[in-house]
Structure prediction request, 243 residues.
Amino acid sequence: MTDSVNSTPVFKRIVLKISGEALAPASGFGIDTDQAEYIAERVREIHDLGIEIAIIIGGGNLWRGKDGVERGMAQSTADHIGIIGTVMNGLALQDALQRAGVITRVQTAIEVKALAEPYIRLRAIRHLEKGRVVIIAGGTGNPYFTTDSAAALRAMEIDADVIIKATKVDGVYSADPKKHADAVRYETIGYDQVISQRLNVMDMTAFTMCQEHHMPILILNFWQENALRRAVMGDYSVGTLIH
Prediction:
């Protein structure tokens, strides 16, 4: 399927899952405003098509909980620090989107009244209906859950059509393409096949939730030119659609 087939997007409402590392500079740590502006421009391109966009963002560019745990920190404390990191990233991305001319709201699963709205499902949906991009930070608000799980949960709550997971890989392969020259990239694949082949798509809690509630997952290389726009127009050859 190519974008020439469809003159309008195939999705009305999406959840875009972006890792915190996407905002990082070359060093891998911190927030790079150039990266934020690049992400904002890609989001603006599909927002201009009339697509309703909710963004779930990670915090790995600011804090990695496993490092704290390895040094004896309680898992809950380590995870809560990461949750705060996602709020910081959300505010940075909001700034970039606003400067790109896209009205944006940040909602958080934890209470940060002075900086962002609390996540309220119906309020988030109302923002989307009014054409605002909603950045949902704070993960699920609970330790022991990844932002993949937050993406799956919020996608179900706001009745999204698909979760688009922005990565640096152009889809799901039968094996690691860097190690196996004969690895096959799937354009579409079923949930059961992902599980049986133990393919690394997202954490199992999130993936199982998507499978149980029939939430499609689209994996693509966010940094490939026009990949996101082509995907929302129905050209799944730019990535892998799991359904």
